[in-house]
């Protein structure tokens, strides 16, 4: 949802922005024995789901002998959107803080006016006709929280196997509209409350480039568990399976594919139905991180599956303010569906597709993406201007 100003990125000669999950926002510094680097950038974005966004992001990197690529990184963001979304955070990253183990953490606050709620299941809200301001399909949400994660490579820094453990906590407040479906249905989580999660996962990463891959892939298995012992009001567990694969067809053409399956079990609050686990979280079904062309979180439930296929073409090399940048184009097809207990989810083949195309502008690892997408079910269209590849 967020991008630094394209012109500022082009004019800065420091090293590139890191793709998610970034150690801290800003530009990744060159390797040094000692010293400090710092940078601050404006944020500009647009999404059909959240409107125009603006704010600022900054990062500071501290170097020490033997610490690669740095000893410590601290980042912060302030962000507001025209649709009433706020997303603020402070983040820390220590790549080799405890031996070869990487410690990451984030303290954050998120506020959403008119956060979407369409009910549960693959055929939810059949009367919805595209008016996202309709109070029947909205509620207000506030969610301060934090997470910490310890990540490492047990078989050495160049081995593809990575593992991590962590803990996340969030307190969600829920404010309903009088006419809302949420007030009528009162699902689990209607009262809001805290959700503490123990996190664990493993990845097998063979990508040639983490930020803009053209070969290899990454497979991930992630677990999350919530209960009284984790500081959670609700008792549930989740499993996420994800596969990302990249195939270089020519020197300019790459086929990229991702498939994700997320399963939740137990006393799951409704505001967790749309979330996936893993290092790079997504939400949906619907929106810029799952199925483009469909309204954000249009379909949600305890089990979610979605697939994304992109044909990425590097069109040209450009010089902008004396800096080399790559111009690319993308064609894509997304589709997904959900399953939820106690509701009708339709036939097994009833998936929700979205198709479209876009433009990519890249400066080293910094990738700005501009996408146009269309739902082939409803014919409705969405636009996204954001930062970093979808996957």
From TrEMBL:
The keyword Signal applies. Residues 1-19 form the signal peptide. Residues 103-391 form the Bacterial surface antigen (D15) domain. It is found in: Membrane. One of its GO terms (biological process) is protein secretion by the type V secretion system. Keywords: Membrane, Signal. GO terms for molecular function: protein transmembrane transporter activity. One of its GO terms (cellular component) is outer membrane. The keyword Glycoprotein does not apply. InterPro entries: Bac_surfAg_D15, TPS_OM_transporter. Gene3D superfamilies: membrane protein fhac: a member of the omp85/tpsb transporter family. NCBIfam families: Omp85_fam. This is BamA/TamA family outer membrane protein.
């Amino acid at each position: 949802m967020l991008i630094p100003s394209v012109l500022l990125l082009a004019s800065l000669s420091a090293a590139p922005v890191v793709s998610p999950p970034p150690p801290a926002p800003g530009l990744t510094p060159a390797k040094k024995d000692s010293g400090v680097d710092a940078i601050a950038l404006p944020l500009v974005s647009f999404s059909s789901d959240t409107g125009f966004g603006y704010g600022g992001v900054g990062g500071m990197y501290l170097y020490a002998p033997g610490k690669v690529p740095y000893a410590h990184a601290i980042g912060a963001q302030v962000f507001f959107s025209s649709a009433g979304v706020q997303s603020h955070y402070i983040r820390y990253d220590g790549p080799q803080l405890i031996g070869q183990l990487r410690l990451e953490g984030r303290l954050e606050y998120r506020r959403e006016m008119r956060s979407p709620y369409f009910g549960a299941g693959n055929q939810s809200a059949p009367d919805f006709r595209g008016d996202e301001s309709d109070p029947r399909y909205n509620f207000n949400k506030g969610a301060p929280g934090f997470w910490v994660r310890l990540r490492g490579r047990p078989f050495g820094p160049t081995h593809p196997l990575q593992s991590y453990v962590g803990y996340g906590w969030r307190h969600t407040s829920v404010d309903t509209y009088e006419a809302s479906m949420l007030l009528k249905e009162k699902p689990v989580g209607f009262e809001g409350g805290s959700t503490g999660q123990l996190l664990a996962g493993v990845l097998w990463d063979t990508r040639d480039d983490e930020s803009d891959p053209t070969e290899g892939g990454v497979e991930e298995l992630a677990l999350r568990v919530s209960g009284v012992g984790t500081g959670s009001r609700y008792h549930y567990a989740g499993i996420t399976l994800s596969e990302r694969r990249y195939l270089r067809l020519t020197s300019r053409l790459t086929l990229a594919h991702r498939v994700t399956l997320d399963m939740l079990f137990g006393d799951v609050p409704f505001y967790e139905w749309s979330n996936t686990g893993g290092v790079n979280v997504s939400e949906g079904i619907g929106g810029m991180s799952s199925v483009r062309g469909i309204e954000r979180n249009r379909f949600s439930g305890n089990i979610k599956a979605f697939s994304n296929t992109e044909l990425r073409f590097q069109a040209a090399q450009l010089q902008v303010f004396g800096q080399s940048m790559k111009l690319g184009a993308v064609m894509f097809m997304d589709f997904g569906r959900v399953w939820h207990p106690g509701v009708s989810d339709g036939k097994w083949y009833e998936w929700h597709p979205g198709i479209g195309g876009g433009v990519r502008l890249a400066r080293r690892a910094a990738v700005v993406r501009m996408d146009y997408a269309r739902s082939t079910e409803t014919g409705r269209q969405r636009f996204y201007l954001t930062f970093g590849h979808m996957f």
